[in-house]
Q: What sequence folds into this?
């Protein structure tokens, strides 16, 4: 008599529901609402946290040029870059890192959702899941690169027009943990690929 599996249909439905809800929330709050803000249909993102060159306080309107652009920079060391009435280009630059990050997260969640659906057949070790894991690994790797690069580049473009770029240094900080996670997922995808290939070869001999 075979051992009873600890994973049942209810567990699978619950997992699918959680992943589906995550896809919905990220799609709405991470992509749809920021895009609507960019096009001006709702209140846009108007601020960006930045690191200052020095720890001294920068006034709300540090330079005349910044005031002319409706730009404020307030804080000590870690400051807030704000725009009173951002135009389309500024709204896009402010929202772009969040939109891109959310889109990459959506790719991962959708692929995980599709993998969860393969559990309905009782077998997750299928060739499609190996490809999905590889795609997830590459997506995480892209996110590891874009996560620090996009905010730095868009902030530099925002500051260039307001004349306060001297107070905010251009800095990139990469996180090795996301690169490690991506490599682990890619390795897992290769394990899936080799496992499904071995099983197919074995079934062909029977």
A:
């Amino acid at each position: 008599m075979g051992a009873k599996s600890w994973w049942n249909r209810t567990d699978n439905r619950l997992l699918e529901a959680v992943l589906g809800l995550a896809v919905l929330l990220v799609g709405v709050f991470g992509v749809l609402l920021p895009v609507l803000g960019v096009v001006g249909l709702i209140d846009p993102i108007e601020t960006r946290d930045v690191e200052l060159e020095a720890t001294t306080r920068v006034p709300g309107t540090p330079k005349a040029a910044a005031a002319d652009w409706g730009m404020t920079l307030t804080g000590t060391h870690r400051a807030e870059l704000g725009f009173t009435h951002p135009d389309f280009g500024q709204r896009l630059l402010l929202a772009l890192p969040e939109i891109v990050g959310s889109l990459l997260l959506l790719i991962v969640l959708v692929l995980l959702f599709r993998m969860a659906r393969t559990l309905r057949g009782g077998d997750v070790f299928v060739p499609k899941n190996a490809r999905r894991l590889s795609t997830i690994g590459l997506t995480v790797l892209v996110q590891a690169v874009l996560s620090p690069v996009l905010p730095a580049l868009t902030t530099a473009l925002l500051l260039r027009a307001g004349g306060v770029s001297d107070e905010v240094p251009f800095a990139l900080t990469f996180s090795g943990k996301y690169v490690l996670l991506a490599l682990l997922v890619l390795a897992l995808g290769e394990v899936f690929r080799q496992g499904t290939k071995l099983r197919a070869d074995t079934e062909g001999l029977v």
